[in-house]
Amino acid sequence: MSVTEKISAVTEKIIARSAASRRRYLDRIEKAASNTPRRAKLGCANVAHGFAACGPTDKALLREGACANLAIVTAYNDMLSAHQPFERFPDIIREAARQAGATAQVAGGVPAMCDGVTQGEAGMELSMFSRDVIALSTSVALSHQMFDAAVYLGVCDKIVPGLVIGALSFGHLPAIFIPAGPMTSGLPNDEKSRIRQLHAEGKVGRDALLEAECQSYHGPGTCTFYGTANSNQMLMEIMGLHLPGTTFVNPNTSLRDEITRAATKRALAITACGNDYTPIGRIVDERTVVNGVVGLLATGGSTNHTIHLIAMAAAAGIHLTWDDMAELSAAVPLLTRIYPNGKADVNHFHAAGGMGLLIRELLSAGLLHQDVKTVWGSGLDGYLVEPRLADSGLTWTDAAANSGDRAILRGCDEPFDRTGGITLLDGDIGRAVIKSSAVPKDRHVIEAPARVFHSQEELQKAFKAGELNGDLVAVIRFQGPKANGMPELHKLMPPLGVLQDRGFRVALVTDGRMSGASGKVPAAIHVTPEAADGGAIAKICNGDMIRLDAVEGRLEVLVDAAEWASRGNATADLSGNDFGVGRELFLPFRAQVNRADEGATIFRVQ
């Protein structure tokens, strides 16, 4: 299957731009590869430490040194609903490895914070940086060099990107990501949003709000809206790092357990000890990265991945840019309506045909590279199947050929929109992105006076005081990675949504982030350069007319050019961001972090 001219052209640009760094990366992982277990070259004391706590069977296999040993890198904790199911996975994985004549060990744990818990709190200022901590933790886990492949247990916002970056630093090792699956459907997401807005207006109390939230987030598994966590899971499948069709199977089911066993055995089958060696550094190439972007656009996925995908690609020596994403967005249709782009959740998407049907449609339209490496041992056409339990055990059957619900999932011949869900904005304020697929068409162009704030709390205070009744563009600045770690500004959506529902023309412009589930109100986010890095967003004054145009891709201030050029940048006292809730430990990160359009990471393409 060949790709369209536009997909091919963007891919070739990325290949050319990345040629030197990608070559260096591949050279490094080739030097690290070995067709015999690396632990066999460790000293006797080293390797004895490595299996000292194992049971007799595993210890004998590891001592003999010929079998494959699988690393388990886990983000388990039982506070995150999405990660709580992972508590059982190591035992399942170890037993499946023994059945295959191999061994598995928990190599290490990585932190996993829940943005849902820290939204609007100081702890959210650690969220973006937690991704790089997870990458570092993954490298520490694998540094013992006891392993021939790894499986990664992670789901949520920064966790999967961090695990991918860490895995790519050990790119000579095969890697499979094993999902836990979404929780069953609870209170509909639009009803949850309605209660939040009523609470913002003071029309319902905390008890009603808490009850709605509890009905939404009610059990083990990923939150069911299509935010960053579920966008992560879509990416892992469309990039060939999950087993096919396994992304949105609910946790704690017999099918989910069999998928975990199958993923374990597949990870062992693709080590250098066998005949199907498939290291992750070879899987994640320029074509795979383009496939990930296409999947993100076709599903209207999380805007956080305009940052994460750049950082993930960089870890494999690949230079991805916002311009690449913008070019692809113009060529990729929107095929799904999942909240916040619609009313359905990911369980409904899965039931309508899910990933297999989505990939089939994109392949048929020439929008995905079929000829990529995957952990399944095929090209991407091997992902047109889904798992089933039969009397004989786990089997794969053909994925749905047609959508079970065209209000949720459609083909390329009848898309919800002819272009992708994310738009790049450019102008004298800087560069930004907007999740245009979540915004009504009549709100794609907003022109209104600026109201400038330096925190989301300031805006909330003004809203409660009745000062925001009118058309406005809320400018929330000093929220970028250098200023305070680039938190998600979750508290902004309910009041801005209320103002929009009152009939006002409202938009948001910020150098911070929004939730992967944000929508409804037009939001130009990730403004780059940020205010704390000399960005022009720091020049905006109250009353300046701002034009956000998601049709033409423009973000402009309608101020006389001479006056704009003569203005100095506003400053802000950021010392309050330096301490408390562990923030003092992240001062070096804030000093070193690069721009949002470079991945907002402390790492660089080498």
TrEMBL record:
EC number(s): the record gives: 4.2.1.12
Q: Which UniProt keywords apply?
A: Lyase
Q: What is this protein called?
A: Phosphogluconate dehydratase
Origin superkingdom: Bacteria
